[in-house]
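Many introductory courses stop at the sequence. We go one step further.
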Amino acid sequence: MLQSPPAQPGMREDEIDTPALVLDLDAFEYNLDRMAAILAPTGTKLRAHAKTHKSPVIAQLQIARGAVGQCVQKVAEAEILAWGGVRDILVSNEVVGAAKLVRLAALAKIAKVAVCVDDASQVAAIEAVAAAAGVRLSVLVEIDIGAARCGVQPGPDAVALAKLIAASKHLIFGGLQAYQGSAQHKRGIEERRKLIDAAIDGSRRTVEQLRQQGLACPIVGGGGTGTFEIEANSGVYTEIQAGSYAFMDADYARNLDGTGALVSTFRHALFVLATVMSAPHHGLAVLDAGHKAVSIDSGMPTLWQRPDIRYVSASDEHGKLEYGPETAAVKLGEKLRLIPGHCDPTVDRFDWYVGVRDGRVECLWPVAARGGFS
């Protein structure tokens, strides 16, 4: 059941019902503009990842700033974006199962749709549904450039799969999916750079071997919030698939730049607003935001502008805070902003973004593609 909106435009932030997913619009817009400005001189395009925001509204704001389209991880996400007017969508993942593929082919009648493969049987299955629907689908070969998740090996294996796609009457070879996810949260820049340099090398070799076989490679896609500047300046990658940059969670904020300082390219824009529901004694308080309100898979949330207070543990409906004797007592009913450790699954817990500017609610946007649907 759709959650009731926790606020209405015009309300003060302290009137928002909690727990609520709050978007600081000034910081959010800064992040979108900053990404566009960084990528512009590189010539690399942004295909922002909608698995982070799950919102056609946010997708359109990114496209208005120059993004060529969106990536998603699931057919259901692609459907929501296409129905919301997004016209260029890459499922940056493998899709297996006839029912899902039929839905994907149907979307090709209203949007440009692409999907990834790492096995010849997937190519045959996609070809069959494309033929039945009377559409042509763009298909990218995913290569494993170090993440050890999905993908064929760079080089001959990838070329063989690309040739199979290119030979189909109903498919178009769209390029390479070359995302190195395991590099994104390595703290030091040199550690991230080492992994991405290997990814760039594998991608470059594969592009050259495709060229030798007469196959152009329109897209080499990858790059996340932790490494996108390296890929964008590589001369190999054509599209960047960063998503979390728009919000910036606590985990990405722990990455370091070349000087050893915390990376400060983007601003924290996404918060879970929570209320102190219990304050039994000095040094201990409990929020109404636990597992069901904020993801802790990448560590506990931090408190916005309150380094003196620590979120130390979560249960289903409770978040436990601890603070020292020098901190003023946390009061019953006080509202605090949490910075999620991991923004993507935190967003997935809510039906609404509450957009806030200058302490007032400005807008409500549905998290239209949330949920565990495939």
